[in-house]
């Protein structure tokens, strides 16, 4: 009898510890912009075919051991869900805001139901300031798009259009979109990637000098003013989530280098040609220190040993960045590079992703991984899926 009591107590103790322990984050990005991962072009405007394809993706990711997806629901100020604020994405229907002959369905609600049935979290991925891609014209926007109502909220850079981050009205609009998602959907997190201010184009200045001169808000350097525009956006989204649904996480997946050490003693020992702080005006360290985000997923899409941006150097740098804070660190990884004809030798010899996952397990602050993106991952280049399953069985 005593023997059985001891066994029961041991099982209860183990169950309690397991329940209290947080599972590592194991996720993949499902990109919808340009139909990268879903829905595939041949299924545009076909709801049943799209749903069947999504089920296949979710089943495949679950089989790898994934416990979360990062699902892109707002790639270009549009919606892969039923929204009264922004039109349905043309990546879903073929024409922005129009369903043609088919009955509208709520793609996000469907994804939430299917993912949660499989024990997978749903992190909804929004691009905050992007209005169009270079392949899109504003003429493609739906008649009821906010661009039609407030064209003064936007500016053009290169061949693309963006919300003007300096305007309180645009920050309020983005917060309304996030609030709508938090209130109406069973989501686990709001997620944004590396697109804040646009990636710089050589010899092409950003078109916001007049806005800066008209309302510098006490800043003398335009770079500091731009960073503050993004800071105000991130802080406002954080505050809104806390007021509305505090259990929803807020995560950012930035470009992999915050700042180079030759520009800032707090930076990494890298020589990246572009950085978050100096070029995208995203001060990730500030957001971590202020607790405005719950997790960070730096996109470390380089190999171990790369001279200008070494994966190992950056993994340790980001670990130091979150140390002593409540912000969780997951690593964004690049299986799409494996076996590429024009890639460095590390991506062609053996399995660089497996090497990186092995390194991740030596750094305590790294508590998860996220893979970009689903379709190239599931093609299993150089056996990466087999490696992932092996790691996630441990």
Structure description:
- Helix content is 38%, strand content 12%.
- An eight-stranded parallel beta barrel has the order 1-2-3-6-7-8-9-10, surrounded by four helices. A two-stranded antiparallel ribbon has the order 4-5.
- Mean pLDDT is 94; it is low at 1-20.
- The chain has helices at residues 2-20, 47-64, 90-93, 107-117, 146-149, 168-184, 209-214, 222-244, 276-280, 284-289, 311-322, 352-360, 374-378, 384-393; strands at residues 25-30, 68-74, 121-126, 154-157, 160-163, 189-192, 249-252, 295-296, 328-333, 366-371.
- It is of the alpha/beta class and 394 residues long.
- Helix 6 (168-184) runs parallel beside helix 8.
- The chain is globular, with a radius of gyration of 22 Å.
- It has 14 helices and ten strands.
Give the strand tally.
10
Distance, first to last CA: 34 Å
Give the spatial strand order of the biggest sheet: 1-2-3-6-7-8-9-10
What fraction of residues sit in β-strands? 5-15%
The SSE order reads HEHEHHEHEEHEHHEHHEHEHEHH
Question: How many helix segments?
Answer: 14
| Unreliable sequence segments | 1-20
Q: Roughly what percent helix?
A: 25-40%
